[in-house]
Task: inverse folding
């Protein structure tokens, strides 16, 4: 590996000063400024910091259960904002189950993501107040700092609980930090903490060698916070693929109706339409506020939609109008 | 969408040429500079650990359990113990006696002719070590020196069930309500009990075997490690056999998951342990079997499996004591 001049690194850090907050901070553990622990006391200091901050960190670390796979994430606000990896949520507006270490399951949906650096945000949609961790807003993590990783490796396991691994920051770059806390599938999206229990990164990917464990630094999240909260899909990959227009799937067959609107004559099994409760015999009046006049016009409207887009359908059923909002599937 | 790609971490080559600052190897968690702070524990480990070799190749480590030469190790890594040597400290003991094994824990008891070994000081009568507790175990070794690897307790102590459930370990064909053995898996309990190709399976646990489903149900009533009474017919003669049911994965192997592929040299037998503590030291499978020490040099357990890239299992000290007591009393 190449060593770069400290001048370059300083350059990289200068930009980050913008993010510095003014609130009082827990002191930086002295052990981080030693090249290596020298004696038993130093080792105990590392262990003490870790074990004292671990309970809060564990409570806020969640398994993101996607049904056919899983990742991890961490709650960062009492109202349930979750930070995770873009390749875990895979898109905007996806619904999934979140499992806390004690086994409590809640519903959540993904908000925005940055597909170029593997950042993603999600939100718990169940009502409640949730355990959360503080973010290292000062961006104080430095090369060589002692850190620990948490994750639901290989999926949720109540008997085992969340896995913790200790390491140091072994490489620091603008958009990636590397630690020697070993990671494995299922850890993706899980949190990396400093010795004060502050969140400094989110697990992203590994290399073949066990010391190659990559995390997205929290500064990437802070930089993109607004876009993430607004459910934007930022960038063109490689960590998530933008849904393609025209691939949205509803799953109904319709016939035009003389009085206006379209009459549903078929509802596909297991289709998004069926799951949303559409029935044969319902009359579709509007989609997203637009009057439906012909099959062709309806298809043209749908062609503008991508998988996971929400559509609002106004329909006439038993003489009454009602509006259903549903999310399209993938064709 | 490909679900597997979500579960697994994205594998990417590293070392892209952007501004980066890198920590020298010596200062990484298992670098020499950091390990130097553990020197007193390394010295303790030097005494109570054993290196087991076949020829010049290390095949496992061992844990010294008594001054007079009883050593515990991982049974499945040493096979019949033929042609092996045991090194404790700097002394090499050729051809140790394989006293007995405990299949449930995958532990073997070896005996070497020694008199003043220092047994691993077991940490007994205390709760399981908490997450975040420093642990120290064998790393590489030289002829004279044990090196260490360090890590922390990673999760809650628990049972690791056998992957795949119990099996007889035979394949058969069903012909007019009779099951005829077509193959006996080499590592199966059926092979050990002497089941042969072309045997007809008549009774299991005294119940008549009329179909594959019936046999499956009978086997599934058992746990891995149980004995099953099996009556077979061979060339017109009925024979009664006792077959040990082993874990499906142990007998037939397993398909590698993506997590396995990124996990390097994990232990072949890595499931089916009554109770383990778990830590994050990455020890290759040929370095399993040695003691796991804490900062006081007390033995928290004995490594029993490298499970994957980031999980290593150890038998807790209290269980290790009862296993050792039982196996050693059988020896005397």
Result:
């Amino acid at each position: 590996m190449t060593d770069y001049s400290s001048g370059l690194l300083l350059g990289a850090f200068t930009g980050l000063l913008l993010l510095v907050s003014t609130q009082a901070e827990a002191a930086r553990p002295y052990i981080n400024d030693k090249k290596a622990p020298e004696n038993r006391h130093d080792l105990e200091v590392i262990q003490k910091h870790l074990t004292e901050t671990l309970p809060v960190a564990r409570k806020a670390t969640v398994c993101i259960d996607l049904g056919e796979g899983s990742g991890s994430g961490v709650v960062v606000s009492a109202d349930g904002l979750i930070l995770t990896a873009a390749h875990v949520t895979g898109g905007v507006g996806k619904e999934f189950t979140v499992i806390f270490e004690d086994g409590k399951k809640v519903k959540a949906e993904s908000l925005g993501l940055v597909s170029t650096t593997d950042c993603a945000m999600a939100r718990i949609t169940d009502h409640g107040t949730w355990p959360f961790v503080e973010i290292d807003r000062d961006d104080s993590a430095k090369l060589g700092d002692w850190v620990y990783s948490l994750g639901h490796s290989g999926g949720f396991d109540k008997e085992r609980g969340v896995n913790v691994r200790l390491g140091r920051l072994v490489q620091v770059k603008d958009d990636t930090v590397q630690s020697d806390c070993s990671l494995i599938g299922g850890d993706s999206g899980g949190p990396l903490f400093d010795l004060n229990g502050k969140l400094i990164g989110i697990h992203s990917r590994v290399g073949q060698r066990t010391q190659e464990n990559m995390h997205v630094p929290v500064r990437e999240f802070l930089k993109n916070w607004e876009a993430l909260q607004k459910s934007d899909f930022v960038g063109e990959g490689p960590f998530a693929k933008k849904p393609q227009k025209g691939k949205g799937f509803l799953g109904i067959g319709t016939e035009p109706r003389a009085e206006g609107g379209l009459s549903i004559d078929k509802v596909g099994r297991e289709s998004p339409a069926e799951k949303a409760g559409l029935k044969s015999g319902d009359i579709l009046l509007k989609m997203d506020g637009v009057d439906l006049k012909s099959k062709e016009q309806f298809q043209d409207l749908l062609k503008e939609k991508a998988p996971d887009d929400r559509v609002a359908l106004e329909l006439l059923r038993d003489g009454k109008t009602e509006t259903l909002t549903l999310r399209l599937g993938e064709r | 969408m490909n679900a597997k790609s979500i579960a697994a971490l994205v594998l990417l080559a590293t070392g892209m040429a952007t501004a980066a600052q890198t920590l020298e190897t010596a200062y990484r968690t298992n670098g020499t500079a950091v390990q130097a702070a553990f020197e007193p524990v390394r010295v303790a480990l030097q005494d109570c650990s054993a290196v087991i070799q076949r020829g010049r190749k290390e095949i496992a480590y061992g844990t010294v359990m008594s001054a007079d030469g009883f050593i515990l190790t991982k049974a499945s890594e040493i096979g019949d113990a033929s042609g092996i040597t045991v090194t404790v400290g700097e002394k090499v003991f050729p051809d140790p006696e394989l006293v007995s094994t405990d299949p449930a824990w995958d532990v073997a008891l070896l005996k070497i002719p020694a008199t003043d070994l220092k047994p691993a000081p077991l940490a007994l009568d205390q709760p399981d070590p908490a997450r975040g507790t420093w642990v120290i175990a064998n790393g590489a070794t030289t002829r004279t020196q044990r090196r260490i690897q360090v890590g922390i307790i990673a999760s809650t102590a628990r049972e690791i069930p056998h992957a795949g459930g119990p099996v007889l370990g035979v394949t058969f064909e069903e012909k007019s309500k009779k099951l005829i053995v077509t193959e006996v898996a080499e590592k199966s309990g059926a092979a050990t009990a002497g089941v042969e190709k072309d045997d007809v399976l008549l009774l299991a646990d005294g119940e008549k075997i009329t179909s594959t489903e019936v046999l499956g149900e009978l086997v599934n009533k058992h746990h891995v490690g149980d004995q099953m009474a099996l009556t077979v017919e061979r060339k017109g003669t009925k024979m009664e056999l006792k077959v040990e049911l082993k874990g499906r994965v142990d007998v037939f192997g397993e398909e590698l998951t993506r997590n396995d592929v990124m996990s390097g040299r994990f232990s072949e037998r890595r499931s089916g342990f009554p109770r383990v503590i778990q830590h994050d030291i990455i020890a290759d499978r040929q370095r399993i079997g040695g003691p796991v020490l804490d900062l006081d040099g007390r033995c928290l357990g004995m490594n029993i499996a490298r499970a994957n890239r980031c999980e290593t299992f150890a038998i807790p000290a209290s269980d290790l004591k009862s296993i050792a007591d039982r196996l050693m009393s059988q020896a005397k």
Notes: The longest helix of chain B spans residues 317-331. Chain B touches chain A through 59 residues (CB under 8 Å). The radius of gyration of chain B is 23 Å. The domain at 166-250 of chain B is CATH 2.30.42.10 (Pdz3 Domain).
